[in-house]
Specification:
- By secondary structure, the chain is of the alpha+beta class.
- The chain is about 40% helix and about 25% strand.
- A 6-stranded mixed beta sheet has the order 3-4-2-1-12-11. Strands 5-6-7-8-10-9 form a 6-stranded mixed beta sheet.
- A hairpin with an 8-residue loop joins strand 5 and strand 6.
- The longest helix has about 35 residues.
- It is elongated.
Length: about 375
């Protein structure tokens, strides 16, 4: 009787370990599956860190029970070694040197969450702190998402020419859809600021021409070199506060919980499918670039996802080059969400990288110092 129970228990743990290993591998290589037909695999990519922790738990468990079964987790981790390097960076964190090295290019990407325009009366200090943070790091190029501003009304809260001057930039390019006004004064869009000349500007928009269906790029002249800089904001999950509370404490006790769960899954599916379309269009524009590229933005997706892998194909990720740890860039829902990225052409080298962990937006800004090899 006791022997039968032990065999049953061992079988359960072996099966559980094997299942976690398979899900981890699927999540690690989700870019191989077309989200149009296999969107649900993206859920395993989102859960990759937790699946990895589960594999590590099984290694420790089998170490004291039956060592040979440790191979299930070890083999899975070895098979996912390349994607794993994008997921977690194990290295001693280098101190980011604020002073810039002559000749290097400092790039910042940040979802600025409207520059706190909704609280400009009650908490005006927050926007001031955001501007001070940007000025402290003195980026040469800054790509901002969820930009709310006005180019024409000098009395607007976020008057773009004033921001350009306050942030010590010489040029900017603001992309938005005229139909998506934030209010009567401000537009809702994405913006690139530059201390170097912008010699060409493009906004790419597709039907239905919503906020996430546009992206922008500019050609920047630095000395004798021309770089193409992309700024993008892919489809978000559009989680409500109620969705976020349920994710923090999920349950399936009654029919109400079941509806909440279905609603969240539906939002996941919609976002995966839309990001797939957006990613394919962005990649087409990247493939047509005659210049070395820098791609910045809020991907709303994690490392090894379809969007991350396709846009990053043939590119370097600055966090993977010089970051450390998990590198979370989104401040809520999960401590594992690194959804903001700076990708560079192979001719760039990331000399240093940092994530500024300041609660001024729902995202943390990321900064990379780049050198260019002709």
């Amino acid at each position: 009787m006791a022997g039968g129970f032990r065999r049953l228990t061992k079988g359960f743990f072996v099966f559980s370990n094997f299942t976690v290993a398979v899900l981890f591998l699927l999540g690690s290589y989700s870019s191989l599956f077309d989200p149009k037909y296999f969107w649900f695999i993206g859920l395993f990519t989102f859960a990759s860190i937790y699946l990895l922790l589960a594999l590590l738990f099984f290694i420790i468990f089998w170490l004291f029970v039956k060592k040979k079964f440790m191979l299930i987790s070890i083999v899975a981790m070895l098979l996912a070694w390349v994607p794993l390097r994008h997921l977690v960076k194990i290295k001693i964190r280098d101190d980011f040197k604020t002073a810039k090295i002559t000749g290097n290019l400092r790039v910042m990407s940040w979802n600025i969450e409207h520059f706190n325009i909704l609280e400009h009366k009650t908490h005006p200090e927050k926007k001031a702190l955001m501007l001070d943070l940007i000025n402290r790091y003195q980026p040469d190029i800054a790509c901002f998402q969820e930009m709310v501003g006005s180019e024409k009304d000098s009395n607007a809260i976020n008057y773009v020419p004033f921001l350009k001057q306050r942030l010590q930039f010489n040029n900017y390019f603001y992309s938005y859809n005229e139909k998506l006004d934030f209010d009567n004064q401000h537009h809702f869009g994405i913006i690139i600021f530059s201390k170097y000349p912008i010699i060409q500007k493009h906004t790419i928009s597709y039907e239905p021409n919503t906020y996430n269906s546009i992206f922008q790029y500019v050609d920047i002249l630095k000395g004798a070199d021309t770089f193409r800089v992309f700024n993008l904001h892919l489809q978000s999950m559009k989680f409500s506060n109620m969705n976020r509370k349920y994710i923090d404490g999920p349950s399936l006790k009654d029919e109400t919980d079941l509806k909440k769960s279905k609603n969240i899954l539906s939002k996941f599916k919609t976002a995966f499918l839309k990001r797939k379309e957006q990613t394919d269009r962005i990649k087409l524009a990247m493939d047509a670039s005659p210049y070395p590229m820098i791609v910045c933005g809020d991907f709303n997706d994690v490392p090894n996802s379809y969007a991350y892998s396709k846009i990053g194909k043939g590119m370097k990720n600055s966090f993977a080059e010089k970051g450390s740890g998990i590198g979370r860039t989104f401040s809520s829902i999960s401590p594992t969400l690194r959804i903001d990225n700076i990708f560079t052409d192979d001719r760039f080298t990331t000399e240093q990288f940092t994530r500024v962990k300041k609660d001024l937006s729902d995202h943390f800004p990321i900064i990379a110092d780049l050198s260019f090899r002709r």
